[in-house]
Amino acid sequence: MKEVIVEGRSDAGLLRWFFSQVAPDADIALFAVTDRVLIDSDTITDRGHNTGPRGSVVSTAEIISGKAPRSSRVLFVADRDGDSFGLDACPELDNIVYTDFAAMELYCLSIKTIGKVLSVALRAPKHITAQSVIDAITPALVTLFRIRATLRSMPEPKKLAAKVIDQLQFNASGSDLDPEAALERSGKGYSRKDLSETLSRFEVPEDSDKRYYIRGHDIAAVFVRYVASMHPNLLREDRRHFAQPTAMEICMMSSLEIVDLEPYELFKKLKEYALTGADGASSESSKVA
Fold first, then answer.
1. Of 43, 147, 203, 231, which sits with the fewest C-beta atoms within 10 Å of its C-beta?
2. DSSP state of 90
3. Burial label, 265 (beta-carbon count in 10 A; 0-12, 13-18, 19+)
4. Residue ranges of E strands in the chain
5. What is the pLDDT of residues 113-133, one digit of tens each?
């Protein structure tokens, strides 16, 4: 039996479904890292990672690789997170693979998936297109990523104040997100000048794929704020539960389809892992033998 250890239970659920479709005969157990691994925070920070699920996954992968560098029984999966800004290391090991973009949820930020959520879950009229929604929320998502990077980089790291997203509003020209105000609200104890100068270090190239610069859990939260601002009728009656970002995130993840995932490197590697035996032979070769 093989094991795949991921950051969270939603990741485990997604990959369990993926393996059931692409390799239904493979014997693979899926675990969230907190359900499988005991690792103390000092071990994580001593290795240069932040505490939390991602740090636990990467640190454990490093430890296992050091003890059994050629083992193919356990595979770890981690988000890239702040790698695009140099804030999170992604060590190249044989037993770990990373998301193509900043996080697992970024696979949902596509015309097909957002379109399915709009049509099926929210029953939106045709004039509310997935592309228009993605275009509207992406600048705010990227700005939030830069703000979070700024707060993390301060001598005493801070977290984004909850009300920054909870009170976010959209209009026809975009959002009312003010990075300076958000930093001042979140970075208590630091001067506006220091926060502003740090923010300026985290610039996103114009021609880059913005999915490298978006926090995964922000997608559903900002999407909900956009719909609540611009099309509040879509979150009424039997659809009111989708006003909760956690429910919307589950809806988005459930709207992904195999054909949408298979072209990405992460899922190519996962499929290869599922179809390859512990001795490196393909499952078909193992059956013949």
1. 203
2. -
3. exposed
4. 2-6, 28-32, 74-78, 96-98, 170-171, 174-175
5. 999 999 999 999 999 999 999
- Residue 45: which region, alpha, beta or left (left: phi > 0; alpha: psi -120 to 50)? alpha
- pTM over 0.85? The answer is yes
pLDDT at 162 over 60: yes
Q: Which residue has the tokens 């999170």?
A: 88
| Sheet strands side by side (includes 28-32) | 28-32, 2-6, 74-78, 96-98
DSSP-assigned letter for residue 279: T
Q: Would you state the pLDDT for residue 289? A: 32
Q: Which of 19, 11, 10, 7 is nearest to 272 (CA)?
A: 19
pLDDT tens-digit map of 235-287: 999 999 999 999 999 999 999 999 999 999 999 999 999 998 654 555 444 34
Amino acid sitting at position 79: D
225 in Cβ contact with 168 (< 8 Å): yes
CA distance 170 to 72: 48
Q: What is d(CA 230, CA 209) in angstroms, rounded to the nearest whole number?
A: 26
- Give the Cα separation of 107 and 109 in Å (integer): 6
Angle at 85 between CA 80 and CA 141, to 5 degrees: 75
pLDDT category of residue 70 using cuts at 50, 70 and 90: confident
Is there a contact between 251 and 227 (Cβ–Cβ < 8 Å)? no
CA-based Rg of the chain, rounded to a whole angstrom?
20
